[in-house]
Queue: 2 jobs
Job 1
Amino acid sequence: DTGVSQDPRHKITKRGQNVTFRCDPISEHNRLYWYRQTLGQGPEFLTYFQNEAQLEKSRLLSDRFSAERPKGSFSTLEIQRTEQGDSAMYLCASSQGGSAPSYEQYFGPGTRLTVT
Amino acid sequence: DQQVKQNSPSLSVQEGRISILNCDYTNSMFDYFLWYKKYPAEGPTFLISISSIKDKNEDGRFTVFLNKSAKHLSLHIVPSQPGDSAVYFCAATSNFGNEKLTFGTGTRLTIIP
């Protein structure tokens, strides 16, 4: 397995445009997480899925943000009407979950969004 | 409200010596703790973790210590190598790792050759 992948790696967009990011988790992992990281901060939780069910959303996830994981495999994160404050690194992570001995979340390389 | 705190933004250590990175937490519900290493323009890479039922976990050059009464954990790297230079994040979660991670703000470790 090649690990968690994210696409695109970089995205530059103009304020007001919509953007969509994709995450492909490690294949046997049933949990998928989205985080956002800004300069000088640690990653901040946005939302997570167990299989196709979205189990929790952060208050950081305004109504302009939506995430899906339609078949319990890859996930998409869409930001509508982007604002300059949305500029950040968007990170995806996956984990095995359940009662296995290892719960660690494994991160992808991230998508860096710049809103101009 | 910063539930996970890394109070040292940076740390410089001579190659071959021990690096000690510290982390404090405030939420008593946290029961699983992880350390991640991050290089610029990459995602965080998992290093080592510890459950609240243990007070020490070791993996090669990396050892994590947990002091639950003080709500404090530390990562020891010995001996430190130049490739260890990176930003290190402490993270915590509950339900023994089945929940979201709460991260600290990171410590930039520089290993001096």
Job 2
Amino acid sequence: RKEVEQDPGPFNVPEGATVAFNCTYSNSASQSFFWYRQDCRKEPKLLMSVYSSGNEDGRFTAQLNRASQYISLLIRDSKLSDSATYLCVVPNAGNNRKLIWGLGTSLAVNP
Amino acid sequence: DAGVTQSPTHLIKTRGQQVTLRCSPKSGHDTVSWYQQALGQGPQFIFQYYEEEERQRGNFPDRFSGHQFPNYSSELNVNALLLGDSALYLCATGLGPGNTIYFGEGSWLTVV
């Protein structure tokens, strides 16, 4: 099993739709998780951090299921500007906490 | 308050040459991690610097080396460049080794 695995997509959705991405991780000792957004040829930007069961920020909700070892990202009322690649990141457990990256899920929101 | 800054933003080098990329951490950050991101891939961890020492390293050859200065800024050096080294090089910084989660805009390296 890969350390961090995401559905690559692409997800094509109309404006206003709700879309959800899943990310599975292999290290059950992982304690914190991140979702990053990356636009084409730009750096990853931190979107949300998840330290407990979940986090919500406006239209974005991240949920953590430790028993099944997955994190989800839900985007409600999609905007054209949400089109990007969404990367799931899981720090290594332990002191070094090296970031382990998924390959990303591509989202295209269409008018 | 400046965020993470990297330089240069773009550069082109020839196979066999050497390159140095630079990173200045966000104010208050003391740890720097470097990543390589090829097109269509997630970032791959190169190494991390904390207290001016390399603390951990990913699966990159010795051609990739680095340095951290007393002001916490860092350099990534790549020797004997190969075509496959063409990528976006990202610097991430944070306070403490476990928290390098804020990225600079990256340096695009093209090797021809």
